[in-house]
Amino acid sequence: MATQFLIRTSYKAMRLAAAKHLSRTPVRVMCTAKGIPTNEEQATGLELRALLAQKKGKDPYSIFRPKEYAGTSEDPHIVPSIGDKRLVGCLCEEDNTAIVWFWLHEGNPERCPSCGSHYKLIHQELPH
């Protein structure tokens, strides 16, 4: 009986201490006077750079889907590169399992040796 009394009193004492402690701690509210922060307000570093570039209409880190081109000599597929040549792989047909690889050099558009699609290499600077 004495042990039950000790257990009950210690349990009540712990509950009272926890209640006093909780009443003294400040409550953090998720939405402040301005509301929930936007992505631009809480983004930092590389994410912030990407968001600011997207606002300007640029895509410095190739986040967006590339623009589609016809692949003709007048409207070739654009291939960005930081050098003067790049290895390009062409899936000539939709259901093709083999990739045709060829080197693309800066300058005039070049054709895929298999299907004849035109590709043009343009020089692009690194964003950082």
Your description of this structure?
This protein is of the alpha+beta class and 128 residues long. Helix content is 30%, strand content 20%. The chain has three helices and five strands, in the order H-H-H-E-E-E-E-E. It has helices at residues 2-24, 39-42, 45-55, and strands at residues 77-81, 85-90, 100-105, 110-111, 118-123. The strands form two sheets. The protein has a three-stranded mixed sheet, with no helix packed on it. A two-stranded antiparallel sheet has the order 2-3. Strand 4 and strand 5 form a beta hairpin. The protein starts with a helix and ends in a 5-residue tail after the last strand. The model has no long low-confidence stretch (mean pLDDT 79).
Keywords for this structure?
30% helix, alpha+beta, 128 residues, three-stranded mixed beta sheet, single chain, two-stranded antiparallel sheet, 5 strands, 3 helices, elongated
Which SSEs are present, and which pair or pack?
Layout lengths: L1 H23 L14 H4 L2 H11 L21 E5 L3 E6 L9 E6 L4 E2 L6 E6 L5
Parallel strand pairs: 1-5
Antiparallel strand pairs: 2-3, 4-5
- Going by helix content, strand content and strand pairing, the class is alpha+beta
Shape: elongated
Rg (C-alpha, Å): 31 Å
What oligomeric state do the depicted chains represent?
single chain
Q: Pick out the low-confidence regions.
A: none
Number of separate helices? 3
Strand % is 15-25%
Major sheet: arrangement of strands: 1-5-4
Encode the helix/strand succession as letters. Answer: HHHEEEEE
Mean pLDDT, nearest integer? 79
Distance between the termini: 74 Å
The count of strands amounts to: 5
- Binned, the helix content reads 25-40%
Describe the sheet with the most strands. 3 strands, mixed
InterPro entries: Cyt_c_oxidase_su5b, Cyt_c_oxidase_su5b_sf
Protein name: Cytochrome c oxidase subunit 5B
